[in-house]
Specification:
Keywords: Decarboxylase, Lyase, Pyrimidine biosynthesis
Pathway: Pyrimidine metabolism; UMP biosynthesis via de novo pathway; UMP from orotate: step 2/2
Subunit structure: Homodimer.
Order of helices and strands: HEHEHHEHEHEHHEHEHEHH
Low-confidence stretches: 184-189
CATH superfamily: Aldolase class I
Distance between the termini: 10 Å
CATH architecture: Alpha-Beta Barrel
Number of helices: 12
Pfam families: OMPdecase
Oligomer: single chain
EC number: 4.1.1.23
CATH topology: TIM Barrel
Shape: globular
Helix content: 40-55%
Length: 244
Amino acid sequence: MQRRPVDLRERIIVALDFERPELAREMVLRCESKVGFYKVGLELFMADWFHTVDWLIARGHRVMLDLKFFDIPETVKRAVHRVNDRGVSLFTVHGDRSIIEAAVAARGDMKVLAVTVLTSFSDDDLRDYGFAGTTAELVRRRADMAIALGCDGIVSSGREAEMVRQRHGGTPLIVTPGIRMISPSEAAVDDQKRVMTPARAIAAGADHLVVGRPITRAPDPLSVICGMQKDLEAALDRDHEGSN
């Protein structure tokens, strides 16, 4: 499998889904000896604007700004311009054609990721919204379109990562949320429906794994991170051996 080189410290993106910035910063201080990539989503951003983003970048960390821009193209373009030059590495937009085009045109040095289908959605959920196909079919359509329009990559569950990687090779970034340490058949998985273990998601072709609660709600987040990284190293070694 074609795969871009990524430092192990940046394979995991810790999701700072906290209601208060001081909690987010405390978590970073607990994790930063092993992880150098963090996600700031809508909840934390609304509580803290760019302050935690700037704080993370000042500490030498990379930031994924996960606001999933979804508005008329001109508004999206202006919003992206507001993020340019702040040092953000990745930002997300919804996988709509006009939104992607606007974001790509305004992205500057950042990389834009198109969100394909949220990992909280199942096939049944899509049918409730009037889509007759499967989540995999919708991810394929949106990924093909996003990459054709110049997106740097996509956000998708690990279940679709292998399909996207096979169709598009090693060039697009694949960022995968919905990471759990056990499979869906082994336990209830809260509000995430299309989940995958870290090793399986990396083996399927994901470049980065967005991990929130399995790390941030653990009694010892650093221990969880170290365990995940050990599993990722083993999966990457197997993939390298299989490609030789």
